[in-house]
What does this fold into?
Amino acid sequence: MLSLEWSDALEGPNSPDLASTPAEARRSWVHTAEEKQVLATYRAVSEVGEVPAPWWLRALDRGKIASRSEGHAIEDAVTDLLSARPGWVFVPWADFGEIGYWEFVPSESGVYGPATPTTVQFTSSHRGWIHLVPAHHGPGHAQPIAFTVADLRAQIEDIELIA
It folds into this structure.
């Protein structure tokens, strides 16, 4: 029963509009309920096994960030940078529980035909909170590169040129 409740907590309200930024996608209970209650519920559900959750909630649970708003601020900083640049699009669907990712659309047309585009994903796997996944073509997956918001800001023009 707890797993079902957690699944409901991750679901955002139905809307005919797709989110165009992470902030617009923050409509579920985990994004709006009292933070201590969200964290307590996540910990209770996690006792049974690994469960889907936003990257910032996993980081908060491990004590790597101080609050949900700190995670949202990281998402917003990336949004401020990428939404102001041509070619970047927010993709609101990702693994269940995740907020989504940014895609550099011009990188879809690779030198040898269609490619998987360059993406910027949020992660709790390191303290930079961002994975840059370069555009790639062919079988397999490109290895994500650990990034920070500052790295992304400093290297954005080079990243776009590689596409």
Q: What stands out?
A: Residues 140 and 154 are 28 Å apart (CA to CA).
